[in-house]
Design brief:
globular; binds adenosine-5'-triphosphate; two-stranded antiparallel sheet; 327 residues
């Protein structure tokens, strides 16, 4: 079956790393039909809109979207795009690879972050010159949906036995209490092993000994902050992929932004975007190709050639070509 993939390069190094990922996917000979859309600062300067309606529709109607990065307009692009794919979970693996200098080379974590609720649901108010408030939204149904996904995620994998639920229910008793109770109930129904960790304790423990954790299920803001912390443990932004998963659709993007300091020079590290393509392949059912591609990336990270951010001298094209050669 042919899958339709919306491709949105965006701004800055999005224009370099997305073509690299497409070259690699072409080498895998998967049956994707690509449909290109525009979004970001450049298209806003031209048309007045950072996310033109046709790009939104493209993402909403595709089987999956591969997105690069957007500059100043990032919030105007990525938030509606995540909405277009109706994404309720953000998957962010943080894995250290041999050959890459990392603070904690033993790190191998996957964050499953709730992607629609919490403090990101947009209920902020200025009540006076002195007072602003924020309403934190947590639903049982949203938490259960994340938990169902998390259970199926660990059940489908030979690598994971269970997950840690990270929260702060000792302080946010109603909201994180509801989140924790819903997630633990679903896990119990599935017979999936869990443990509970308070998010502040998690921050310390993961820095000291990341191997005590594996899959981490957490509310929106905690997932945002803690997965960035884990990014610091594994050697930086150029390596980290992410997936936003909805019921019938999904969007895959590198964690890094447009890297304006190196954009246009052809030296961006394509790894984060290529690993995002690995997540897309897994999601669309191409597990064998996903494994082959991840192994090829691992080999090139270990043996070179590597881009400058990883201490090498290769440009984007050379590193991409080496990955294709490994395939
Ligand atoms: P934006 O405003 O789009 O978020 P930024 O510079 O604030 O851009 P990033 O784009 O995430 O944030 O980049 C942060 C730093 O990491 C920059 O110095 C950038 O060059 C570097 N960087 C990010 N991604 C890559 C990559 N793929 N290859 C090489 N360096 C990268």
């Amino acid at each position: 079956m042919t899958h339709t993939v919306a491709v949105i390069k965006g701004d800055g190094i999005g224009n370099e790393v997305i073509p690299a990922a497409i070259d690699v996917l072409d080498a895998l000979e998967v049956e994707f039909e690509y449909e290109y859309g525009e979004a970001g600062d450049a298209v806003k300067a031209e048309t007045g809109e950072a996310l033109p309606e046709e790009t939104y529709e493209l993402a909403a109607n595709a089987d999956a979207t591969l997105f690069g990065a957007a500059g100043e307009t990032a919030a105007d692009v990525i938030l509606p795009l995540r909405d277009a794919v109706d994404s309720f979970v953000n998957i962010r693996p943080a894995k250290a690879y041999p050959g890459i200098e990392a603070v904690r080379p033993e790190t191998d974590l996957v964050f499953l972050r709730e992607n629609t609720e919490g403090v990101y649901s947009g209920h902020e108010d200025d009540l006076s010159d002195d007072l602003s408030t924020l309403t934190r939204v947590v639903t049982t149904s949203g938490s259960e949906k994340l938990a169902e996904f998390a259970c199926e995620y660990v059940e489908a994998s030979d690598d994971h036995d269970g997950f840690s639920v990270v929260h702060k229910a000792n302080v946010m008793r109603k909201t994180d209490g509801r989140f924790r109770d819903a997630v633990l109930t679903v896990a119990e129904e599935h017979g999936v092993e869990t443990d509970e960790v308070l998010m502040d304790a998690f921050a310390t423990r993961v820095c000291l000994d990341p191997e005590q954790f594996d899959v981490i299920v957490c509310p929106n803001l905690a997932g945002d902050v803690l997965s960035d912390l884990a990014a610091g443990l594994v050697g930086g932004l150029g390596l980290l992929p992410s997936a936003n998963i909805g019921d019938d659709n999904a969007l895959f993007e590198p964690v890094h932004g447009t890297a304006p300091d190196i954009a246009g020079e052809g030296i961006a590290n394509p790894t984060a975007t290529i690993l995002s393509a690995v997540l897309m392949l897994e999601h669309l059912g191409y597990s064998e190709q996903a494994d082959r591609l991840e192994t090829a990336v691992e080999t090139v990270l270990a043996e070179g050639p590597r881009t400058g951010d990883l201490g090498g001298t290769a440009d984007t094209e050379e590193m991409t070509a080496a990955i294709i050669e490994q395939l």
